[in-house]
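Interim report, section 4.2 (structural modelling).
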Amino acid sequence: MTRAGIQRLLITAAAVLALEASCRLGYVGRATMIPPSEMLAELVRLMGTDGFWSQIGFTLRNILAAAVAAMVAGFAGGVALHALPRVRRAVEPLIASYYALPFFVLYPLFIVLLGMNALPIIAMGFLYAVMAMVTATLSGLDRIPPVLRKVGRTYRLDRVQDALLIQLPAAGPHIFTGVKLALSYSVTGVIGA
Amino acid sequence: MRGLSSERAPVPQDPAGASHPAHPIPFGRTPGSNGLAAGAHAVMTGVTRIFGSAVHALGPVDLELRRGEFFSIVGPSGCGKSTLLDVLAGLSAPTDGTITFEGKRVRGTVPDGVGVVFQEDASFPWLTVRDNIGFGLRRAGFRGPEAEDRVRHAIDFMGLNDFADAYPNQLSGGMRQRVCIARTLVMRPRLVLLDEPFGALDQQTRLLMGDELLRLWRASGATVLLITHALDEAAMLSDRIGVMSSRPGRFIEIVETGWPRDRTSAIAAEPAFGEVTTRLWNTLREESLKAMASQRRVAG
Ligand SMILES: Nc1ncnc2c1ncn2[C@@H]1O[C@H](COP(=O)(O)OP(=O)(O)O)[C@@H](O)[C@H]1O
Ligand SMILES: [Mg+2]
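Predicted structure of the assembly:
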């Protein structure tokens, strides 16, 4: 392990110990937070019960479903907005303020619309994740150097070849960032819901 | 047919790298041309390019590139050189005028047989040097040992052997430009357009690359159009040099050097070389003085 890694580990351990001590000594009330050691014990107990692993599996499945849907829709949305600059200008304010919207007010509505099942949960995860994918796709496409498009034309690529062989790989790093973000945002959305 | 060039020194009959037997001929001869055939290869007639409604970038320009010649364009920056290249290559449409390549109108697409090396770094960062250079061959359906051979030779010729499996971001700007030159030349274009390809290189490397370009030009028999801002480079490499005015760029003079086909950068030691550079310099100096004067009139 690197020096920095060891230091990070020690700092984390010290913080957990300090938290444990302040809970035990009554600086932090039980109603605010139970001591970390009791959390761990409870987690071990829960892992022994039936239903725990199926719950975990259920949640993971929901996260995955939300993330994949967000990636596909976000990518498609990003490509479409990039191709339609007028529409993009019109929705730019929505994109910019998207994460300030209180999605959780929609949750009850989703339950009414979609039923008491996994769908409303997935929908929440999707809503959290999709715009991260849209913005990552847009910034990836914006940053393709125009000269690469010209190179494509000198090799007489058609539009599909140009998209697959030049634009997609050129925007690749940004789109990959979008994929990572979509995954972590859908975790937030699904667990929150 | 060659009109003006009739007073030039006699052209050696076997130019295919014979004067440099130590080197392989990596890019081979361009099929369908022997480099010596006379006549117009690419022609621009009354070409202008106006961006939007206000920026008159180019023209009107008339230019006739002779088959197999080495033509350079010099001119102040921003005068429309890159714009001329884009229009000639079919990458952007002229506002007015016509372009023909090998007798056919150029319209909207880059004709087969035209290769372009751009001013900006145009290597593909997601491909290795080898795959960058082989890109066009793969697109054109060339695969197998012959294509691999061409790519290997190109890597060798460009001095990229140690970097064949490296990615462009591991290379210097000059090496990336070599990758782009190789990627264009493996296609054996009959007309090669180069936009300030040595801009990122130091002076020594520039000279070496200039010699290599001459060797490639002789070996391939292709027609070369080189855009450069270095007057000595233009004087050293070219059969003819077009001097452009400041924007909107027009040709104010076309200088014929009369160099033998079998030349190297050593030509820079000849008295005639000094005459050519002086002439280019004087033409450009008058032009910039005029441009400055007219700017002052506008400002005042
Ligand atoms: N796409 C464009 N839109 C508007 N103006 C442009 C565009 N491309 C080039 N220009 C302008 O046209 C002029 C000529 O540009 P360029 O051909 O790149 O010059 P050079 O290559 O000689 O330096 C410049 O004034 C430049 O700002
Ligand atoms: Mg330019």
